[in-house]
Design brief:
By secondary structure, the chain is an alpha+beta fold. Helix 1 packs across helix 3. The longest helix is centred in the middle third of the chain and has 17 residues. Helices cover 27% and strands 26% of the residues. The protein has an eight-stranded mixed sheet with strand order 1-2-3-4-5-6-8-7, sandwiched between helices. The relative contact order is 0.12. Strand 4 and strand 5 form a beta hairpin. The chain contains seven helices and eight strands; from the N terminus they run ββαααβββαβαββαα.
């Protein structure tokens, strides 16, 4: 017997500190077409540019009446900021409803303000808390450093790199896989977040070396900062 999704109320809409996550509406088509047509926005995405107004209208029409994730299908969720369409997040449930895959796109004028982190964090929290999924995953191009930073800032762990695993246009591209399980997400939420109250320089000795070696560098940072083990 396949378990049912846990949904007490409609998944959409819901709000964060600065955003309203809602269904797409017909009036969003022009803004949706505009940011999907931007080559910088589309660089690491699957669609081709330009993304016409007709395509946008057809896409939005196909989402009519859907207020939450559906097994085996992608759902695009509009991000509204100060009354304007700022971008979107997407979620796909697997056939059993256990695993959710997420994606995200932000219009250029709304980037570099932490809105994507806010939106994806709220979506992931709702997937675990409201739907009771077991696992949330994200797939990205290894060249997309901003996307890596976003996921790592939300506690996602890099699990694998598939070489030439995804075909986009005429190219076979590498694919990075990040994930949270319900358990790792709960641990990340419960992590200590208070700033340190006592910071001291200490000598590296056999007694302190283990703690130093255990300090990890996020994958997105390793092109700039080597791991401690490099120097040992």
């Amino acid at each position: 017997m396949v378990p049912t999704l846990r949904r007490m109320a409609p998944f959409l809409p819901f709000t964060t500190a600065r955003l309203r996550l809602r269904r797409f509406e017909p009036g969003d088509a022009a803004a949706f077409s505009a940011y999907r047509s931007d080559p910088h926005v589309a660089r690491y995405q699957s669609w081709q540019t330009p993304y016409t107004l007709q395509q946008a209208e057809h896409f939005i029409a196909g989402l009519a009446g859907i207020d939450g994730p559906v097994r085996g299908e992608w759902l695009q969720v509009a991000l509204e900021h100060e009354g304007a369409l700022a971008g979107d997040v997407a979620v796909e449930l697997d056939a059993q409803g256990h695993v959710a895959t997420v994606g995200y796109t932000l219009a250029p004028s709304h980037q570099h303000r932490g809105l994507a982190v806010e939106a994806v964090g709220a979506l992931v929290d709702r997937l675990f808390g409201e739907l009771g999924v077991h696992r949330v995953v994200a797939s990205l191009d290894p060249r997309n450093l901003a996307s890596m930073r976003l996921l790592e800032s939300l506690g996602f762990e890099r699990e694998a790199k598939g070489r030439a695993a995804v075909r986009v246009g005429d190219e076979w591209l590498d694919d990075l896989r990040y994930a949270h399980t319900a358990e790792t997400y709960a641990a990340w939420i419960a992590r200590p977040q208070d700033p340190p109250v006592d910071v001291r320089l200490v000598e590296i000795t056999p007694a302190t070396a283990r703690a130093i070696l255990d300090v990890r560098t996020h994958p997105s940072q390793r092109r700039f900062v080597a791991t401690v083990q490099t120097y040992v």
